[in-house]
Amino acid sequence: MTIPTSSIEQVIPGQGSMAQPQRAKRRSFRFVANKKAATGLIILGVYLVLAVIGPWITPYDPGARGNDLVQPPSADHWMGTTHLGQDVFSQLLAGTRSVIFVGFFAGIVATVLSVVIGVTAGYVGGKTDEALSALSNVFLVIPALPLIIIITSTLENAEDSLIALVIGLTSWSWNARVLRAQTLSLRRRDFVEAARASGERTWRVIGFELLPNLTAVIASGFVGTVIFAVLSEITLAFIGVTSATTWNWGTILFWAQGQQALAQSAWWWFVPAGLAIAILGTALSLINFGIDEFVSPRLRSAGKTKIKTASGRTVRMRIGFTPVLDNRAQHSHATPTPVVRQEVVQ
Amino acid sequence: MKYFLQRLAFYLFTAWAAITLNFFIPRMIPGDPVQALITKYQGQLSSQAIDSLYVLFGLDKDAGLWSEYVSYWKQLFSGDLGLSFTFFPTPVSEIISNSLPWTLLLVGITTIISFFLGTGLGILAGWRRGSWTDGLLPVTTFLSSVPYFWLGIIAIYLLTGPDSFFPSSGGFDNGLVPAFDQYFIPSAIQHSLLPALTILISSVSGWILSMRNMMVTVSSEDYITVAHAKGLTDRRVAMSYAARNALLPNVSGFALSLGFIVGGTLLVEIVFSYPGVGFQLFQALGASDYPLMQGIFLIITISVLVANLLADIAYLLLDPRTRKEG
Amino acid sequence: MSQPVIEIRNLNVGYGLGDQGVRAVRDVNLTLHRGEVLGLAGESGSGKSTLAYGMTRLLAPPGVITGGEVIYHPEQGDPYDVLSLSDSQLRKFRWNETAIVFQGAMNSLNPVHKIATQLTDVLKAHEPKMSETQRNARAREMLKLVGIAPDRMDAYPHQLSGGMRQRVMIGMALILQPQVVIMDEPTTALDVVMQRQILGQLIELRERLGFSVIFITHDLSLLVEFSNRIAIMYGGRIVEEAPASAIYRDALHPYSKGLLGSFPALKGPRRELTGIPGSPPDLKGMPSGCSFHPRCPKAFDPCGSEIPMLENRPDNRSVACWLVNS
């Protein structure tokens, strides 16, 4: 519903139904025109800004104790206070940086790994492919979160960057798998075959022919990993594996859970952090839906299943039953329905 | 059959990789908490138990890495996962065998229900685009972004209380002894409802979304048009042609994402203090109970591998193209 | 000639509506007579497939039928408009009266069901009184008819070659003995030998069973050989309609001549291949006047401004061209 100019040409039989790789560049700016992606990007932008300025604009020191213990939201404390009188809003603001940092750092680590492993496996093929595929499949089926928990629990008071590294190193496999499949199919396309046949060096073919056409897949994998990394970091903090003194949203939940916030009905203590996670996750998912619809136009027309005719009636688009517009009725008045059996007969 | 054997070989290989990983991780532990424990319980530990801990944690500086590795395997095959620190001197294997059934029942059943429910709703949403099912999509997107454990906290906050039907923690009423009788089983079911609901709500949305997208993709295949042209009923086209084909990638997706799902569901146990392996893992973490952590990671991994193998067999039965010609 | 089976009257088919809509089939009038093979030719984008899918209401979204009638004359009873049928009436009509053999044999068969299932589910839907044994016997009979060993009933589509799959499709199309079979590029995916073998077989079956055929292809030489009459489409309109031999001997429209010059003839004297300069028009920006005029070697004054109408000529053919129509 958002990219009308291109949706028509994608569905007319006999014309190309997939995005032409050569046109990837020209079309890329249209991605932002996708409503879902735009919404997601705007929300993500807000989070990014807060990640930078958050720790500076907190009304209180997030760790500073106060005299108002476990108070509901008020003008002084927008999101109430903790058992030590700390300001929840300040903790939330201060925690944004760590969450975004770990999410993006882990995302970058995992994306770089997945590109290197996935593209190499798909492009080189043979024994290398078999070995790398086996490696990514092993990492795929081993439950990632328990593995991350086990590893980080052996590291005492790990820094954010170390945690991000562990998450990144254990969560690249899904993307590597997707990228390998995409590379395999791209490698058989004419323009890649041509570049190979004309003696282009491997790194040039990969860098200039393959990677530009894998952008959407890589981006979508990156966004997916960021979601996973954010959830993992928060989980680690929540179960108390990582340091409880550097603030992130999981730390807030850790204290809330540990100090019986539930039993005290202190909803303001755990609701904001959870919502912050959920909204960030939703924003990232929206970006990924945008990418999906951008890559496969079949998903795109989802919103356009009902159309209005000139006479104001709505007609539903259905597979297998092409709508017949009602203004046809006026037409059949002109040629009355009793059918005359003669035509241009021989 | 060949396909099946290939998969089996792969899972054996993965199990080997996971166990080897499990062998090396403890060797990275800084300091020596194990040595400290051994010293603490000097008088109560049998020499055999000390040996087993040495092998598990690589404290035996005299032995080479390889011989440690060999004895580690020997120990695994005899079912010895070491002794738990928290519940000293209970063997880890005993703790796990007590908590594993809880997890298998809760997570296993809920995951399967979630898959079928989500797939069913996804079929509806994908087939009848533009109907009320489209309204599910924004809600499901939001729900799938919520951490499982947070949803559990909210569920406890909103639905439990002194007068509520739902208990807020535990796996059964205090004062009951686990047994298959008319007192224990209803109590266990009552305690599992809320955790199950939490897992269901947060995991079902993923299946709805993926099945819907597969339905949309499959709907434009030629054989769907043929099915319509044949004048088959809408139901037959939707189920036997569209959904039947859309199911295939969803089943393989199910197998592949089990590792992710299980990780999240274990946390629900923590929030609800449910006596499964997730909660045990949480307690082990709090007490730096390394043998128990190692054992739980191992058992989770192996369970996921077995579940994967089952999903592969389902796929084998669903897709004739993977069967051997004959 | 004999009675009409299908009369298409002023059919208009488009993609999308309003500002973004395009018209793919414009004011098409076409009659299929009982027992005849009517060829429909044109380049890709000429609207020939859209016409075929539009008249059966099988066009995928965003296809819309914006006007016209498709009058069907059953063997017994009064003629009716296919486009006015309700969903359930249309389901009954489909395959019973008109069957379709689709473009590309690869994807027309459902990959997860056996050939037998796909042949018999038609019978299940249309002949509910048949027993399973009867259905299987009928399916076996159809396979024999198209030259496939009946023991292939239990094969899956991926176990058959492309030619065999297309034969299965033809057998499936004839299973209810329809009056009309629409074939949309039925043999493009096959090699030349297989193409002619299958078409030859189909023509022979037509003589035996007495159905009519609408044969859609871009390959005019195939049409000249296998059809009675040919209609040539360009830019969504029929530009020429005439007996096959007349088109071959002396095509009136410059576009028909161009098309004929693009393919080597299978029979008759050798000709020079010429082709048509330029490319088919964009549906979004159809040229004014005769849509072929930018590519037409003989375009003159009125061509760019006025649309030529399809006019009947005394020699039983019709053409839409200012050169011929005065």
UniProtKB/TrEMBL annotation, chain A:
InterPro entries: BP-dependent_transpt_permease, MetI-like, MetI-like_sf, OppC_N
GO cellular component: plasma membrane
Subcellular location: Cell membrane
Entry GO MF terms: dipeptide transmembrane transporter activity
Family: Belongs to the binding-protein-dependent transport system permease family.
Main location: membrane
SUPFAM superfamilies: MetI-like
Transmembrane segment boundaries: 37-57, 99-124, 131-155, 161-179, 210-230, 236-255, 267-291
Entry-linked Gene3D superfamilies: MetI-like
This protein's UniProt keywords: Cell membrane, Membrane, Transmembrane, Transmembrane helix, Transport
ABC transmembrane type-1 domain: residues covered: 100-288
Protein name per the record: Peptide/nickel transport system permease protein
Entry-linked Pfam families: BPD_transp_1 (PF00528), OppC_N (PF12911)
Keyword field contains Cell membrane: yes
Keyword Transmembrane attributed: yes
UniProtKB/TrEMBL annotation, chain B:
Intracellular or extracellular location(s): Cell membrane; Membrane
Signal peptide: none
Domain of life: Bacteria
Principal subcellular localisation of the protein: membrane
Keywords, alphabetical: Membrane, Transmembrane, Transmembrane helix, Transport
Domain ABC transmembrane type-1: 100-311
Segments passing through the bilayer: 7-25, 102-124, 136-159, 188-209, 254-275, 295-318
GO-annotated biological processes: transmembrane transport
PROSITE patterns for the chain: ABC_TM1
Bilayer disposition of the protein: Multi-pass membrane protein
InterPro entries with a match to the protein in the record: MetI-like, MetI-like_sf
One term under GO cellular component: plasma membrane
Classification via Pfam families: BPD_transp_1
Entry similarity comment: Belongs to the binding-protein-dependent transport system permease family.
Protein name listed in UniProt: Peptide/nickel transport system permease protein
Source organism of the structure: Actinoplanes philippinensis
Higher taxonomy: Bacteria, Bacillati, Actinomycetota, Actinomycetes, Micromonosporales
UniProtKB/TrEMBL annotation, chain C:
Domain of life: Bacteria
Family per similarity comment: Belongs to the ABC transporter superfamily.
CDD domains xrefs: ABC_NikE_OppD_transporters
Residue ranges constituting the ABC transporter domain according to the UniProt record: 8-260
Protein's organism: Actinoplanes philippinensis
Transmembrane spans: none
Descriptive protein name: Oligopeptide/dipeptide ABC transporter, ATP-binding protein, C-terminal domain-containing protein
Lineage: Bacteria, Bacillati, Actinomycetota, Actinomycetes, Micromonosporales
One Pfam family recorded for the sequence: ABC_tran
Keywords: ATP-binding, Nucleotide-binding, Transport
